[in-house]
Specification:
Elements: H1 5-22, E1 28-29, H2 35-48, H3 53-65, H4 83-96, H5 102-115, H6 123-132, H7 139-162, H8 167-176, H9 179-182, H10 187-191, H11 203-215, H12 223-234, E2 237-239, E3 242-244, E4 248-249, H13 251-264, H14 269-282, E5 289-290, E6 297-298, H15 299-312, H16 320-333, H17 361-372, H18 381-393, H19 410-424, H20 430-442, H21 460-470, H22 478-490, H23 518-529
Antiparallel strand pairs: 1-4, 2-3, 5-6
Helix pairs in contact: 1-14, 1-23, 2-3, 2-4, 2-11, 4-5, 6-7, 7-8, 8-11, 11-12, 13-14, 13-15, 13-23, 14-15, 15-16, 15-17, 17-18, 17-19, 18-19, 19-20, 19-21, 21-22, 21-23
């Protein structure tokens, strides 16, 4: 492997470049579990007659992968089977008629019969299934129908009063009617459809809205169905042999990481420029970035984007205006303790008080590093860096580590903080750097990699984080670096095109769903293996304009 490592790295970089171009500007990632989203997409796609046969098989494949051994499906990983979800899946699989689902359906129905009294049924599920089901077969359905009708009547009264509050209550209200009384009543729901074809930007709400419009006898040729289905299709992602409906748009964090990785590994400038343009296109009015799509602006993604754009500089694309706006955002958003929260409205005060806006160690580390290398100078920027540095120094543990807030990994938080301390170039941080590096070295496994602790196996992402922080750090023995690189070179996927995580999903600012992103792990690992000295960044003080590695002119 060691003899082939340069060629392998080149193959991976080329694949990453292709992935960047294919994902511009939107770069999706699947979150898990995906059963509910997949089942609803399968159901509505079948009912509307818009799902190709190969996509039916792919959605069924993904759904069956997540079936529990007892025949049920769960809303969360390692959770018990959920009655409502399993009902939705059974309806979707029964409606699509895929032959591969027959055995899974039999197991699911047996589970439902055993557990029909074990949990409260979701009103939404019962209303939807009762409206879309034309025939009422089987003893289980006959037992559930009276309960469904009771929920329907109660929900109808409630949603009639609240339908103005959103598309989902209105869709439920329409689905609660019988077909005759619902006929022709979908005008208000049509008015709530957004320009992207969705309702409320949500795949689940969009499915309910499409089902409700079908229930009102709106012709299936109406453009509302085509636009809504296109929105759902835009959020589908092929994953091996399966199709996943619930991808989260994490374009910005992936483009930011890819931009930095491509520049560090001396990739073609045109490929890197694509990610630069994507980031500039996705910048919010506040100067920050969200992970992507409908998600709120967060300061971790914003810091990573600023850091990436400082790598790109101003050639061939002018980025100084975007970097200046982001620096101003961080100056406004800094808390009184010197740290930065994950979420903010972009002004001096948070939207509302609470722990959600407390200072976070990993966000603060990313902010300090990004500001230090921003390449723009704003009044108060140096003071903000110094205050952020104080926040980090006061939160180092006795062992020398830092504990993460957004990402709970101490290895991740320590590595990111060490990079921030290097960037700040402050003499007061010298002792903290030595202690942090020593603590990281103590966690290195015998195979040369890092896990979350000595009791847990090494993973490519933990190793990449640690290696990137320790490379060039004072007092780090060379054999530590050599062993870590050997582990990364040996742990590349058999395809030799990416690194896969060998540990459970880690949380990003995605809301309720964690995600494992093989592309992100690959970028971290590839950058950690890059030879040092390709790019050397230094603090830019005064009015000096940042220059890009794309600038081939004499220096």
């Amino acid at each position: 492997m060691r003899n082939r490592s340069p060629q392998t790295a080149e193959k991976i970089r080329e694949r990453l470049g292709e992935r960047v171009l294919a994902g511009a500007p939107q770069w999706l990632a699947a979150t898990g579990p995906a059963t509910r989203s997949n089942a609803l997409a399968l159901l509505i796609g079948t009912l509307l007659g818009r799902l190709p046969a190969e996509d039916v098989s792919a959605l069924v494949y993904t759904i069956l992968l997540e079936q529990n051994a007892d025949g049920s499906w769960s809303l969360d990983m390692d959770a018990a089977g959920d009655l409502s979800l399993t009902l939705e899946v059974v309806e979707a699989l029964s409606t699509c008629g895929d032959s591969h689902a027959r055995e899974a359906l039999d197991k699911a129905v047996r589970w439902l019969e055993r557990h029909r009294h074990s949990a409260r049924l979701s009103e939404e599920t019962l209303i939807l299934l009762s409206a879309v089901t034309e025939v009422v077969p089987g003893s289980l359905r006959r037992m559930l129908m009276p309960v469904a009708r009771l929920f329907m009547l109660r929900s109808a009264r409630k949603t009639m009063q609240t339908c103005a509050g959103g598309a989902l209550p209105l869709a439920l209200s329409l689905l609660s009617r019988d077909k005759l009384s619902a006929r022709g009543k979908g005008r208000r729901l049509l008015e709530l459809q957004l320009l992207d074809g969705s309702w409320e930007g949500s795949s689940r709400t969009t499915v309910f809205a499409l089902a409700a419009l079908r229930h009102t006898a709106l012709p299936l040729e109406d453009s509302a169905f085509e636009r809504g289905w296109r929105f759902l299709r835009s959020l589908q992602l092929w994953d091996s042999e399966g199709l996943v409906q619930n991808p989260c748009d994490v374009s910005n964090i992936l483009h930011a990481t890819a931009l930095r990785t491509l520049l560090v590994t001396a990739a073609d400038q045109d490929v890197a420029a694509g990610s630069t343009l994507s980031l500039l296109h996705q910048a919010r009015m506040s100067g920050g970035w969200a992970l992507g799509g409908m998600l709120p602006t967060d300061l971790l993604t914003s810091a990573l984007a600023l850091d990436a754009l400082s790598f790109a500089g101003d050639v061939p694309v002018e980025t100084s205006w975007a970097r200046r706006r982001t620096v101003l955002l961080f100056l406004r958003a800094q808390n009184s303790d010197g740290g930065w929260p994950l979420y903010t409205d972009g002004w001096s005060k948070p939207l509302w008080p609470g722990k959600r806006y407390a200072s976070r160690i990993d966000v603060t580390a990313a902010a300090v590093q990004a500001l230090a290398y921003s390449g723009v100078q704003e009044p108060g920027e140096e003071d903000a860096i110094a205050r952020g540095l104080d926040f980090l120094l006061h939160r180092q543990t006795r062992r020398g580590l830092w504990r993460g807030d957004v990402n709970p990994s101490a290895v991740f938080a320590t590595a990111r903080t060490l990079e921030a301390l290097f960037a700040a170039s402050n003499e007061r941080a010298a002792d903290a750097v030595l202690r942090g590096a020593k603590a990281l070295i103590a966690l290195q496994q015998t195979d040369g990699g890092w896990g979350e602790s000595l009791d847990l196996p090494s993973t490519p992402q933990h190793t990449a984080w640690a290696l990137r922080a320790l490379t060039g750090a004072p007092g780090v023995p060379q054999d530590v670096i050599t062993k870590a690189k050997f582990y990364l070179e040996a742990s590349v996927d058999r395809s030799e095109l990416l690194w896969n995580s060998t540990c459970p999903a880690w949380p990003l600012p995605l809301g309720e769903h964690p995600a494992v992103l093989a592309d992100l792990v690959t970028m971290w690992a590839l950058e950690a293996l890059a030879p040092t000295g390709i790019i050397s960044r230094s603090r830019i003080r005064g009015g000096t304009r940042s220059r890009s590695i794309f600038d081939r002119r004499s220096r």
